[in-house]
């Protein structure tokens, strides 16, 4: 009579590992990503993406992602997935972004749209549910945006969250839970967490939760038919100091925090150290080359090479 117990045990184990993955994209099948991603033609000036792992990387193939190719452009590209509702469930949005060109101004964020969005006509004005990711402009703006659409309004996070500004790949994770708590992680570390109600100042959310007559979930109302993900950079028209080279990769939308953590470890976690090693080797080579050029200049009686070297050595430092 032991059989039912065995069965019960098996069911329990299955429940633990049952994650729903709404969207996952690693760009591992060459140019076939073009069948899944749609470039917006709303503005003929929108920049184009290509697949690249950049000038330095941890793994030439695995680190290939969508890279911006033109300076001073806006970008809008999107991919579809099956509509889902996160009612009563956790929502995890995760991806990696690398500003290897040393971003002085531009965004590296993604947006989740309603399922009826016209992908070819996508623009900065298209309505979205969630916007998440880093935004850098000069010395003043170095922040992670978490903008939630609620009751026909966009609400920004009131707590400032600082983003990474170096040239390496970073893993950004947003977790929104049905108990109205959240976490923002960078590189797997929690850097902000708390109550969605307080940190977005959603007083109406508080009222809504308390009134039993109107106990419709925030998630239900706001994220009923999430369907489209978009990688967008440099939305701020006032900032056109922008350089190409940003790489987006390892997109994941799921209802399972543990799955996201493991996916992060299996992707970014595996290539982050080799990426830094390759960068260090390149930097060493550049220093060596610069020194040789300096010596040559010295021998020839020229001293005007210094400015270039200064720029080279500071390429990937923090702003
Ligand atoms: C681009 O989007 C904007 C804002 O939604 C709209 O006003 C404009 O007509 C669109 N342009 C084209 C060519 O569809
Ligand atoms: C694009 O969307 C805007 C509204 O956001 C609309 O005015 C415009 O006609 C659309 N363009 C096309 C080509 O569908
Ligand atoms: C939060 O919302 C309340 C009511 O809408 C407003 O009075 C208050 O100034 C807001 N606080 C912040 C920090 O935005």
Structure description:
- The chain has 319 residues and is an alpha+beta fold.
- Helix content is 27%, strand content 33%.
- The chain has 8 helices and 16 strands.
- Strands 1, 3, 4, 6, 12, 13, 14 and 16 form an 8-stranded antiparallel sheet that branches. Strands 2, 5, 7, 8, 9, 10, 11 and 15 form an 8-stranded antiparallel sheet that branches.
- Helix 7 (268-300) runs antiparallel to helix 8.
- The model is unreliable at 1-8, 10-15, 210-228, 233-240 and 307-319 (pLDDT under 50).
- The chain binds 2-acetamido-2-deoxy-beta-D-glucopyranose (3 copies).
- One 2-acetamido-2-deoxy-beta-D-glucopyranose (NAG) binds next to loops.
The run of helices and strands is: HEHEEEEEEEEEEEEEHHHEEHHH
Supply the number of helical segments: 8
Sheet with the most strands, sense and barrel status: 8 strands, antiparallel
Based on Cα principal axes, name the global outline: globular
Briefly summarize what is shown.
The chain is of the alpha+beta class and 319 residues long.
Which characteristics define this entry?
single chain; 319 residues; alpha+beta; eight-stranded antiparallel sheet; 16 strands; globular; disordered C terminus; binds 2-acetamido-2-deoxy-beta-D-glucopyranose
SSE layout and pairings?
Elements (H helix, E strand, L loop, with lengths): L2 H15 L3 E5 L7 H4 E3 L9 E4 L12 E4 L6 E10 L6 E9 L5 E3 L1 E6 L15 E8 L3 E10 L2 E4 L12 E8 L4 E6 L2 E7 H4 L3 H8 L7 H5 L3 E8 L12 E9 L2 H10 L1 H33 L5 H8 L6
Bound molecules: 2-acetamido-2-deoxy-beta-D-glucopyranose (NAG) (3 copies).
């Amino acid at each position: 009579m032991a059989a039912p117990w065995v069965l019960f045990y098996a069911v329990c184990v299955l429940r633990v590992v049952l994650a729903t993955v709404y969207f996952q994209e690693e760009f591992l099948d060459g140019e076939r990503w073009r069948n899944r991603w749609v470039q917006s033609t709303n503005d003929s000036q929108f920049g184009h993406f290509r697949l690249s792992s950049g000038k330095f990387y941890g793994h030439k193939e695995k680190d290939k992602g969508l890279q911006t190719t033109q300076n001073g452009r806006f970008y809008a590209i999107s991919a579809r997935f099956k509509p889902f509702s996160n009612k009563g469930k956790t929502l995890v949005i995760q991806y990696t972004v690398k500003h290897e060109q040393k971003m002085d101004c531009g965004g590296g964020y993604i947006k989740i749209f309603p399922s009826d969005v016209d992908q070819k006509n996508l623009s900065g004005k298209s309505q979205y549910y969630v916007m998440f990711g880093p935004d850098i402009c000069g010395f003043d703006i170095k922040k992670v945006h978490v903008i939630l659409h609620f009751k026909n309004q966009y609400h920004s996070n009131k707590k400032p969250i600082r983003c990474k500004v170096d040239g390496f790949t970073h893993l950004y994770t947003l977790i929104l839970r049905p108990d109205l708590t959240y976490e923002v992680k960078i590189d797997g570390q929690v850097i902000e967490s708390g109550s969605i109600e307080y940190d977005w100042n959603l007083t109406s959310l508080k009222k809504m939760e308390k009134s039993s007559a109107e106990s419709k979930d925030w998630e239900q109302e706001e994220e009923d038919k999430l369907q489209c993900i978009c990688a967008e950079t440099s939305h701020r028209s006032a900032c056109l100091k922008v350089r190409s080279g940003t790489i987006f990769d390892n997109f994941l939308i799921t209802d399972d925090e543990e799955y996201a953590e493991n996916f992060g470890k299996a992707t970014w976690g595996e290539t982050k150290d080799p990426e830094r090693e390759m960068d260090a080797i390149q930097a060493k080579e550049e220093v060596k080359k610069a020194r040789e050029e300096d010596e040559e200049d010295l021998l020839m009686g020229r001293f005007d090479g210094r400015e270039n070297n200064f720029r080279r050595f500071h390429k990937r430092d923090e702003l």
